[in-house]
């Protein structure tokens, strides 16, 4: 086995009086993929940021090829070939792909930029990554997976020794994941040391060589992947045995709560129709970009649309979010960081934002707000060190729970939930699944949009699949399985009657 | 804007905010101490009243500007708008004096005209920005030029003056007061207190901060972003009209140079007070402190002779830059 290229020895990290990382040992070796897993708030991000030179350790040492080292900044780490790919991409949206790849390290001829050389080199890197993106395209127009490939191309353009990936597959569909895995394999073969984090344990099992589990800032287990099962990983993360991840499904009642007829959004959705009954969890599957989010947003009044939407028998006007909420229909966004929560504001301000007129007549009733927050913290088991801390500093799982609390504050009857568990840990996932089926059992009607197939299969009693802006089929009961969903999602077959394009 | 939110935020917010809260107040106290040390007349009733009354116009406008900036907007037109509204008010009052004489109703109609004109000007800015969808900077740069040009044209390049008798009747609104406190000061205090309450304790204030912080989140939280944005410009226009009602009785005239650079002073006061220029967080009391800091600098320079009053602008400019530097340090500190 190769010697570690980068390692942490007994590293601790405190933010003020609170120690969040307690004496962690961690090693990255050339040609090895080392998974770092743990629940949200277990200290994965902090560990990664220390390795990437973004923050300093409070105690213990960082070793580079065996010798202690301190990184003054992420630039110093990058100079040694340590590159971190963040979950939120660090790309200049208005610049071209090639300009991003060489940002800050432009190739020059004399004092002028050598555009030709940069473009050619970028094209080469993208070809290596099987990424069919034009090097001169603007980043803002790219899809999420393509942006991720640009990030990887950027990392490859340097002398890459250590690659740190923060949940790279959280935003990818299954097909794009495969491409990513091939790239990761290739990098491993080239002798790059890779740190990989993911909440999807099957991925860890499949592509990683070694796994280290963090819980509450301490290392609880580290083993070769071949010697540990997925269940053992999950148990180590949570600190207890996980019972069945998905609760029993509620039985839908007869009453129709939501009726969508011939809904269209120009360029995005063609005549989509669906019905949703009381007590039902309806899943919507499909690839990223198939129009699932757009469909939900159009129903919730966040996008202009054509067609008819009837909520509990009454027609819902298009494009009016507030009316929809008042009538009892809400949408929970997939994008909690840029559309869900005000990251620089506290918990209370975020919770009550959609419903301020219910808290006081002219002046806001601060006490009622605090009481609502107390209730939300208790009901949704939100863990926050301080109530008035910026919610951007909360872990992903707690942000998601706060977003759920915020969205459900108006006590809606019909709830559209987009990617309910993106980027959150398995313990919180289970809580959210229990919550969703509890809501259905209590007589709410729920639509769950998800790119994770087990989630659709485990939660929904019926699944609609979208492809290229159309609902191409529905699956019910025993027909709901991964194979059937994938075939529909890829546009290979259609089950709906009005199948012609 | 979304890129900015991905920056690491590992520091503790508590201490930082504290420093930002005290910063402007410390600066104000320091200025008061300097003033007292340099000139014994500084704390005299006459001087303090004078400083406060003169800062009332900018102050009232700056309170409105705080809302606009907090909601992520900007208004460069307020100085020219004030001049134009003042000119319009004087024209109307002079015209009415011919038929109605020097009477109270003329003043009341004049006041109504000023408030209405301010309101309409605010609506125009707001509609162009929210409905037509043009950048606030461009829209208000345009209307700034338009109003400045209109007042110059109305005054035919010179000065529009209120009739002498009318001026005498209207004068007390600026020079009079209750219990030794003049009306402009009272008006400023009332506007500031109301503004602070609206900003901190009403849904409107909270919505402004939410929109400035992240417009998309606000929209997804079923806030009528366009309406709230529009309302901030209308409120500012109305307050410009109100400031003019206080301003006209002071000199009784308006010209092409009336309200020159008020917009910049108002924006500067808002920023010095700790409101973020990019929006998302605003505090009205900070703006009041900012207004006082700016006018005290001018006042101290006038009262002392070792720095020329002509350097007033330079020192104010330095203070503005310093305030923003301090703000930014707080925000990016690791």
Automatic annotation (TrEMBL), chain A:
UniProt keyword Transport, yes or no: yes
Compartments (UniProt record): Cell membrane
Domain ABC transporter as annotated: residue spans: 6-241, 251-493
GO cellular component terms, A-Z: plasma membrane
Record PROSITE patterns: ABC_TRANSPORTER_1, ABC_TRANSPORTER_2
Pfam families documented for this protein: ABC_tran (PF00005)
MF-aspect GO terms: ATP binding; ATP hydrolysis activity
Keywords in alphabetical order: ATP-binding, Cell membrane, Membrane, Nucleotide-binding, Repeat, Sugar transport, Translocase, Transport
Membrane topology: Peripheral membrane protein
PANTHER family: CARBOHYDRATE TRANSPORT ATP-BINDING PROTEIN MG119-RELATED (PTHR43790), GALACTOFURANOSE TRANSPORTER ATP-BINDING PROTEIN YTFR (PTHR43790:SF9)
Record's protein name: Monosaccharide ABC transporter ATP-binding protein, CUT2 family (TC 3.A.1.2.-)
Upper lineage: Bacteria, Pseudomonadati, Pseudomonadota, Alphaproteobacteria, Rhodobacterales
From TrEMBL, chain B:
Coiled coil: none
Listed CDD domains: TM_PBP1_transp_AraH_like (cd06579)
Any Pfam family: BPD_transp_2
Keywords: Cell membrane, Membrane, Transmembrane, Transmembrane helix
InterPro entries, alphabetized: ABC_transp_permease (IPR001851)
Membrane topology reported for the UniProt record: Multi-pass membrane protein
GO CC annotation: plasma membrane
Compartments, as annotated in UniProt: Cell membrane
MF terms (GO), sorted A to Z: transmembrane transporter activity
Residue intervals passing through the bilayer: 21-39, 51-69, 76-96, 102-124, 136-154, 174-194, 230-248, 260-277, 284-301, 307-326
The protein's name: Monosaccharide ABC transporter membrane protein, CUT2 family (TC 3.A.1.2.-)
Source organism of this protein record: Salipiger thiooxidans
